[in-house]
Amino acid sequence: MKPVHPTVASPARDRRLGTRSMLRSPLGLSLAIALMLSGCEGRPDAEAMPDSLMIDSTVRALMRREHVEGMALAAIKNGEVVHVAAYGIRNAAGDPLTIETIMYGASLTKTAFTYLVMQLVDEGRLSLDTSIADLLPRPLPEYEDYHDLADDPRWRALTMRILLTHTSGFANFRWLEDDGKLRFHHDPGTRYGYSGEGSYIAQLVLEQALGLDVGREMQARVFDRFGMARTSMQWRPEFRANLADGFRMDGKPEPHDERSSVSAAGSMDTDIADQARLWAGIVRGDGLSRASRAEMMRAQVPITSVHQFPTLVSDSNPKNAAIGLAAGLGLVTFQGARGDVWFKGGHNDWTANMVVCVERERRCLVLLSNDVRAERLYPDLVRAVLGETHLPWSWEYEWIEPRAEIGASATD
Predict the structure, then answer these.
(1) pLDDT tens digits, residue range 223-273?
(2) DSSP 178
(3) pTM of the shown model
(4) Tell me, what DSSP letter sits at residue 87?
(5) Cα-based distances in Å from 64 to 60, 71, 152, 353
(6) Could you write out the three-class secondary structure of 95-136?
(7) Cβ burial, residue 88 (10 Å; 0-12/13-18/19+)
(8) Among 39, 138, 200, 234, which is least packed by CB within 10 angstroms?
(9) Which domains, ranges and CATH numbers included, belong to the chain?
């Protein structure tokens, strides 16, 4: 596994001989990582992030530990990109993964799409709280994909806010239903339940109510705004020259899916250099009013579930309330020891993406991986780079057992 880590705007490397000597030995490197992880909880807010050399060394060690084939990383401090790197391989042939390797954005697409929606809100072209019945030119069940809702008037309660906070009442996808039909499992707006179906309807509203080409609008209003030349909502043939295939939990490779249709739920192809620009722009609020950006990150709907997935399980965790775990618009937010923290994941059986941002410090860590096993190292890596955030990892990843720290920030 060859690390490839060209950087964008890296800070000065630590020149101290003692640090460099320690990192040259495997035992010393393990000790350095252990010190980073054990000491991160007590870090003062203003302390600098680990330098680029330490971040790269930590990533490589964690990748070896979890047998991860490839991943990429971007660190953001005070709203500016300070480190971008890629490590490992992009396919079964062993070709190196670089910062310009095209990777699948998965559900990070949802947050980028929300950024577009909030621009339209700023322009007065869209209201978050207007019923979609008053926005669409004809009733939702009259559209081909929504005949299943013809006998359920609850679709009229749907709004853009409900769709973007994942409180629509739908399963994640209709194909998960026994009969493959779309239905409400609870009244819209009453409970968080992650749903790609809600993103499809939000996209339909932009296309049918406003007459917009969502792919074109995303390109102009989001990707071009942030200089994301290698990001698209649709497959582009030039991506093939430097493309990441995926790796499943058993290490089996999976070809990259060439998505020809624009999907607000998750069709974005991108590279880590572009994602660095995107999330730095989002944390700064470029292109949005202060009010609209604050609305994105505001806690909108409490999240009570033990895990994010499966989405319809009724089990609840009362400790979520201790950290204010809640849906924002296109993301999830909570209150950590260092103030508000928000995050968004993106996942399929061979993709592991995660963005975590400490709002007050405007610090973020952006993680893309073409190997789903990378999710097993993300808790340690986020702690090592950002310090302890008290992110509820056991809620994000259902395979992690709930831990006592989910409510720790309320008493620290």
Answers:
(1) 999 999 999 999 999 999 999 999 999 999 999 999 999 999 999 999 999
(2) T
(3) 0.90
(4) E
(5) 6, 12, 51, 18
(6) CECCCCCEEECCCHHHHHHHHHHHHHHHCCCCCCCCEHHHCC
(7) buried
(8) 138
(9) 17-104+228-410 (3.40.710.10)
